[in-house]
Write a structure and sequence with these properties.
Distance between the termini: 44 Å
Helix content: 25-40%
Strand order of the largest sheet: 1-3-2
CATH class: Mainly Alpha
Strand content: 5-15%
Number of helices: 4
Order of helices and strands: HEHHEEH
CATH topology: Arc Repressor Mutant, subunit A
CATH architecture: Orthogonal Bundle
Shape: globular
Number of strands: 3
Structural class: alpha+beta
Largest sheet: 3 strands, antiparallel
Number of domains: 1
CATH superfamily: Winged helix-like DNA-binding domain superfamily/Winged helix DNA-binding domain
Radius of gyration: 16 Å
């Protein structure tokens, strides 16, 4: 049974960035810089989206000399449709109460 739940705000941000030019292949690092996510958050999101069929991935064909090949990502047709169905604006995250002395 597939569980359906609302994607996180971080995932929505990644999907929107990819949907800005859905045919373009993107590097994970550059995408992370664009959306303000560190690798520890960015790559698990990309992996989950690919596992769900919303992203396609491939290895870079001609890496720069002295640099290993990098993964490239772009939305699939299902990914484009899913991103198009996201709310136009994301709700603001709830405010966290500050602890005394913070």
């Amino acid at each position: 049974m597939t569980r359906s739940r609302r994607p996180s705000e971080q995932t929505i941000t990644v999907l929107r960035a990819l949907a800005a030019d859905p045919a373009a292949w993107r590097y994970g690092y550059e995408l992370g810089v664009e959306v303000g996510l560190k690798a520890g958050s960015m790559y698990p999101i990309l992996i989950r989206l690919a596992d769900r069929g919303l992203l396609e991935t491939e290895w870079e064909n001609d890496p720069q000399p002295g640099r290993p090949a990098r993964h490239l990502y772009r939305l699939t047709g299902d990914g484009v449709r899913f991103a198009a169905g996201l709310p136009a604006t994301a709700p603001a995250p709830p405010l966290r109460p500050r602890l005394a002395g913070s």
